[in-house]
């Protein structure tokens, strides 16, 4: 039988430290919470290299007298509780008495502290759990604690730490939550010698939200407060029109402690039911005040998980708090109209008339061309490039007599026209058009011979006829003995996806006149900064703006008209949740997301011209069978099956 050993004290301390101290952010959380419990209303935090080499936290709390300084670093020594019954009514953030002992076991700790009753302060140093120095020190009332070389004596833990930037962002996330939970405390955060955050500490949650999350984000919030069955909920929730693609901006606090609560999350989202789109989530900063006897916070060492004595009370309080605020919100979505120069499929005539040719069996009017999605995106791959590169610009200059001209559908016939005024010498005009048509044929033919790579793809071997569109979603096409039903969104999405993926990192981009600033959670912010090169390769030029915000100055042309805030938030959420995903998979997902947003949507109006050109390109590319989601692009019905259903054949 194996021998049972009693572990030495330093080994036991290292094991205990593993439960409390996971990374620099854990150290910051524990020490700042101690400062809050000590009654501080001003806290300054400074870190270097993500907190791995240096953390300094200064507060103006009550301090620790010299007689108790050694006890503070003994495991399970605390001033928060003294009896078992105290665990049933915990109002302080800390109570276990493990933090300082665990931190000192895996780092070099120096503390300088003085109480109001002492004239001389105390300096105490501990390295790897062993006392090094206890001496007098001149210091102000309060406590300054310095942590150096975290995990210096546990290299196995050190190698699991992330990059300095990632660790610093994790610390920033902890500081944000502390500041939001205590607006009456002024918090200053210094990161590698630069001020990253400073909150006023004036007790105004709104001012704190602006300092922590930015004015743009704060402007999207609604203030709310509600009390029900002894539970009070107050804070801010986002307007329905400012919902987000994930839950990373949902902050719940219980009696000043940041918590993760599924009860609160479900109650909040239930209040928004039928007011936000499916797949979107509200943001919030909500404080829940409940009796300490009705809550058990002694569940996990991190103390972010809690148990409620009556979850229904919490659910109802959060639900009605959000619901009442939404009922008083009268804000509506604002339209931001920007004047843009649209790219035309074929240049419009400057004067007189212009010959317009296409490979389809349908000739569109300029009114139909003006709102087509085909011209803006997919046509670039199949038609626009060839059209724009053609040297001869087929424009005929003649006296401005004809005003409304409709030309023939085929290259081999002479165009017919009708004028609002009387036209003389019709034979002469017809002959002139014939000559123009002939010259055009020769010029285009000669140019296409010189530029074989730019030729427009031939039509499918079997001719087709577009019958129409059903439910503004499905294009109905007759081709030979088959009836094709095409999902226009799925097909267009796949076309764009293939175009982006084949761009080999040279996606066509649009430079933004005014860069877009996006506020992200610290996890999303960290993920975006880790993938700047990947985003650049996919067409998004994203730069760090600091304090959890990024700026977008360039984006793929396909999404230039989209809501870039939500695009970047969606990409950031994916990158944060899939950090270990392979780079090719991440790139494909970004292309897929871009294509999905840029593709025409079900319900959008599609002109007859658009449908013809769309079907022409789709059928000429037989490889497009499924959309990136895996849904079929075309459903086929044979004439035989249809006649069978109508009883025409057996």
Q: Can you summarize the main beta sheet?
A: 8 strands, mixed
Strand content: 15-25%
Low-confidence stretches: 337-437, 443-460
Category by helix and strand content: alpha+beta
Average pLDDT metric: 76
Side-by-side strand order of the widest sheet: 5-4-3-6-2-1-7-8
Shape descriptor:
elongated
Question: What is the CA-atom radius of gyration, in angstroms?
Answer: 34 Å
Question: What does it look like?
Answer:
With 650 residues, the protein is an alpha+beta fold. It has an eight-stranded mixed beta sheet with strand order 5-4-3-6-2-1-7-8, covered by helices on one side. A five-stranded mixed beta sheet has the order 9-10-13-11-12. A four-stranded antiparallel beta sheet has the order 18-19-20-24. Helix 5 (164-181) packs antiparallel against helix 15 and helix 14 (488-501) crosses helix 18. The longest helix is centred in the C-terminal third of the chain and has 25 residues, at 426-450. It is elongated. The model is unreliable at 337-437 and 443-460 (pLDDT under 50).
């Amino acid at each position: 039988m194996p021998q049972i050993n009693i572990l030495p004290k330093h080994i036991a301390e290292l094991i205990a430290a593993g439960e409390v101290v996971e990374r620099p952010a854990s150290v910051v959380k524990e020490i700042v919470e101690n400062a809050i419990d000590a009654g501080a209303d001003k806290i300054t935090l400074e870190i270097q290299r993500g907190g791995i080499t240096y953390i300094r936290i200064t507060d103006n709390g009550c301090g620790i007298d010299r007689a108790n300084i050694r006890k503070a670093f003994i495991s399970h020594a605390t001033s928060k509780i003294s009896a078992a019954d105290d665990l049933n009514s915990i109002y302080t953030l800390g109570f276990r008495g493990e933090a300082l002992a665990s931190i000192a076991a895996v780092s070099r700790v120096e503390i300088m502290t003085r109480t109001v009753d002492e004239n001389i302060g105390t300096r105490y140093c501990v390295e790897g759990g062993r006392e090094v120095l206890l001496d007098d020190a001149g210091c102000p009332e309060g406590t300054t604690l310095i942590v150096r070389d975290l995990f210096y004596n546990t290299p196995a833990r050190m190698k699991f730490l992330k990059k300095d930037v990632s660790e610093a962002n994790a610390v920033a996330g902890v500081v944000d939550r502390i500041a939001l939970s205590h607006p009456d405390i002024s918090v200053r955060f210094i990161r590698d010698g630069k001020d990253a955050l400073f909150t006023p500490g004036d007790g105004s949650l709104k001012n704190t939200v602006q300092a922590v999350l930015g004015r743009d984000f704060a402007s999207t919030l609604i203030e709310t407060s509600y009390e029900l069955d002894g539970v009070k909920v107050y804070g801010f929730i986002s307007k329905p029109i400012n919902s987000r693609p994930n839950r990373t901006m949902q902050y719940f606090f219980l009696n000043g402690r940041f918590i993760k609560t599924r009860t609160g999350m479900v109650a909040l989202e239930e209040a928004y039911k039928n007011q936000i789109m499916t797949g979107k989530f509200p943001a919030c900063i909500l404080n829940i005040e409940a009796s300490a006897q009705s809550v058990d916070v002694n569940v996990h060492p991190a103390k972010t998980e809690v148990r409620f004595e009556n979850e229904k009370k919490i659910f109802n309080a959060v639900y009605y708090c959000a619901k009442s605020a939404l009922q008083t919100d009268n804000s509506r979505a604002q339209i931001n109209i920007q004047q843009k120069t649209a790219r035309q499929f074929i240049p419009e005539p400057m004067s007189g008339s212009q010959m317009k040719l296409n490979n389809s069996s349908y000739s569109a009017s300029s009114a139909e061309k003006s709102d087509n999605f085909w011209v803006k995106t997919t046509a670039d791959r199949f038609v626009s490039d060839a059209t724009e590169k053609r040297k001869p610009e087929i424009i005929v200059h003649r006296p401005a007599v004809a005003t409304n001209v409709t030309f023939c559908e085929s290259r081999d016939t002479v165009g017919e026209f009708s004028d609002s005024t009387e036209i003389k010498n019709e034979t002469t005009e017809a002959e002139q058009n014939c000559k123009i048509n002939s010259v055009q044929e020769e010029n285009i033919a000669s140019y296409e011979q010189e530029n074989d790579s730019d030729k427009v793809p031939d039509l499918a071997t079997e001719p087709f006829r577009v019958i129409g569109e059903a439910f503004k979603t499905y294009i109905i096409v007759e081709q030979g003995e088959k009836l094709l039903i095409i999902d226009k969104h799925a097909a267009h999405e796949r076309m764009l996806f293939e175009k982006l993926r084949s761009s080999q990192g040279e996606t066509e981009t649009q430079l933004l006149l005014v860069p877009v600033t996006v506020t992200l959670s610290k996890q999303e912010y960290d993920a975006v900064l880790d993938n700047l090169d990947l985003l650049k390769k996919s067409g998004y030029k994203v730069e760090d703006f600091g304090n959890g915000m990024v700026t977008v100055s360039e984006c793929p042309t396909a999404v230039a008209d989209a809501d870039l805030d939500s695009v970047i938030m969606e990409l950031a959420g994916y990158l944060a949740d899939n950090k270990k995903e392979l780079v090719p998979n991440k790139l494909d997902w970004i292309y897929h997301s871009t294509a999905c947003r840029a593709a025409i949507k079900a319900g959008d109006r599609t002109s007859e011209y658009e449908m013809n050109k769309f079907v022409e390109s789709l059928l000429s590319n037989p490889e497009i069978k499924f959309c990136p989601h895996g849904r079929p692009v075309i459903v086929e019905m044979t004439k035989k099956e249809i006649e069978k259903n109508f009883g025409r054949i057996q």
